[in-house]
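About this split. The held-out portion is used to measure sequence recovery: a designer receives only the structure tokens and must propose an amino acid at every position. Recovery is the fraction of positions where the proposal matches the reference. Here is one held-out target exactly as it appears in the evaluation file.
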């Protein structure tokens, strides 16, 4: 996309598909800001591709630039986002042509995707489906969840203690009692963070030096991960986009030992299993996997923040085995997975075939926390 020439066409497309009120000057400012913060190619706006037909854009694909470190390799990578063809132009070559251009120009490519059709197109360009990110949910207000949907649809009905509570909740007028029983069941299952009394939790940003020192510890435990240093945090959780998040920091002796981002609740409309309940998302988790006490303390504080923000439940997608263990210890329940992780490794770097087990992935990195 030629930034000056095609920007009005991009604005028209975004207005038609996603944001009817978008102003051209706001899009121009956003692209300029993204260029300034681009970690892969500083000064360049994120690569964006349009398919033009008769003077208008009918297909779109953009990217989120980032830096990836894997084994002894470190370099730029791009998350594929906004892959969309107008309905009247689907079932043709437009999607493949957009992706072909991106795959030709860019090296390391990643994506989180739900639908099968784009996964098939990705595979044609060697962007392989590596499997699903396991989703975990923590019920914070069980009685509200029971009022809006059948929790068995979430997979939590397979737990004996919860089946009894669900049976009570289905009796007329007893949903609140069932919710209380579920709350008690979660409390029994939740593991407290031992040795966490010396931790201080707050919502204030930390110094760059402290965050970068923390990131160096976290990265040493992970074989492959997006870089989530102080520059990443400033870039992702700034001004307008930052208003959607609560940033939780844990300190010990005045130094950060863990941080997380919690996306404020939405109504779960993107996932039919969650429709009707207010879902907060644990979007980012940055804590050394070798410190389980700090990890459990971080999750406990995140649950409290989400509850105070009015969430009925807290959702987290996790790939690393240690994080999944912490989630289970805090009474998060696995509800399967809808988000597929797809990747094409760098031409001069390691293959990315085992990312799901070695990978410090979170929803925020690829923008997948924008919807459920």
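Reference sequence for scoring:
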């Amino acid at each position: 996309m030629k930034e000056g020439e095609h920007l009005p066409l991009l604005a028209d497309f975004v207005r038609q598909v996603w944001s009817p009120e978008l102003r051209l000057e706001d899009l121009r400012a956003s692209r300029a800001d993204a260029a300034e913060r681009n970690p892969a190619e500083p000064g360049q706006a994120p690569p964006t591709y349009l398919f033009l037909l008769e003077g208008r854009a009918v297909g779109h694909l953009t990217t989120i630039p980032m830096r990836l470190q894997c084994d002894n390799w470190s370099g730029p990578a791009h998350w594929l986002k906004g892959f969309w063809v107008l309905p009247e132009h689907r079932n043709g070559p437009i999607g493949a042509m957009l992706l072909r251009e991106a795959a030709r120009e860019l090296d390391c490519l990643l994506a989180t995707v739900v639908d099968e059709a784009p996964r098939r197109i990705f595979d044609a360009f060697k962007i392989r489906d590596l499997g699903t990110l396991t989703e975990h949910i923590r019920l914070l207000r069980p009685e509200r969840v029971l009022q809006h949907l059948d929790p068995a649809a979430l997979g939590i009905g397979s737990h004996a203690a919860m089946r009894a509570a669900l049976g009570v909740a289905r009796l007329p007028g007893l949903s609140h009692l069932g919710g209380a029983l579920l709350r008690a069941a979660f409390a029994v299952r939740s593991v407290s963070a031992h040795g966490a009394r010396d931790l201080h939790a707050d919502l204030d940003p930390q110094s760059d030096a402290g965050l970068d020192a923390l990131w160096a510890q976290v990265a040493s435990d992970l074989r492959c991960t997006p870089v989530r240093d102080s520059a990443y945090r400033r870039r992702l959780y700034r001004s307008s986009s930052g208003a959607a998040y609560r940033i939780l920091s844990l300190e010990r002796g005045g130094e950060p030992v863990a941080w997380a981002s919690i996306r404020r609740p939405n109504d779960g409309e993107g996932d039919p299993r969650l429709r009707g309940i207010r879902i907060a998302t644990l979007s980012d988790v940055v804590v050394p996997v070798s410190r389980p006490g700090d990890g459990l303390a971080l999750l406990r504080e995140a649950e409290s923040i989400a509850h105070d923000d009015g969430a009925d439940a807290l959702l987290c997608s996790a790939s690393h085995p240690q994080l999944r263990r912490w989630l289970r210890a805090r009474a998060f329940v696995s509800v399967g997975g809808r988000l597929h992780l797809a990747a094409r490794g760098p031409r001069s770097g390691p293959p990315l075939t085992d990312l799901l087990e070695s990978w410090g992935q979170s929803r925020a990195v690829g923008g997948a926390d924008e919807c459920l």
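Annotator remark: The mean pLDDT is 82.
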